[in-house]
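Hey team,

Filing this mostly as a record. A colleague (T.K.) asked me to run one chain through the structure pipeline before their review meeting, and I want the input and output archived in the tracker in case anyone asks later how it was produced. No errors, nothing strange. Just documentation.

Input sequence:
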Amino acid sequence: MIGDRWTLLILRECFLRTRRFEGFQSALGITRHLLAERLKKLVRQGILRRIPYQESPKRHEYILTQKGLDLYPIMMAIVHWGDTHMVDERGRPLLHQHRKCGKDFDPVMVCSECGEPLSAKEVHTHPGPGARGAPAAAAPTTSKTKARSRAA
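Output structure:
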């Protein structure tokens, strides 16, 4: 859905408040055809909403839907990775300021339960109630599954 370079760049521009076709094209240097294709795809997927802002000639703005806005933490994680591993000696190209406190910040993923910062080393992933086709070894064992495996 968001795996190709242009889609990620279009989403970045959406979060930077770009809304119009010409704005995307100017900021990204993308061809009109490719931009139109990517915008149509994002609208079809429910990530952007297309809203007319001019009748003659007919023109549209592209607004993030709630589904699109929910990509913000993912986009910030990608930006943070780039800021950590891909910047040159001049430093970060963009800084992020929290409107409430007025401070520049680094995005940090924290546990929703205890508030502690998370890293891959501190997370255990296991099948949830919606898991399908999970390997039996990964599924949590219960007294019923233990009894079934003993009977087999």
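Quick notes for T.K.: Residues 145-152 have pLDDT under 50 and may be disordered. The first strand starts at residue 48 and ends at 54.
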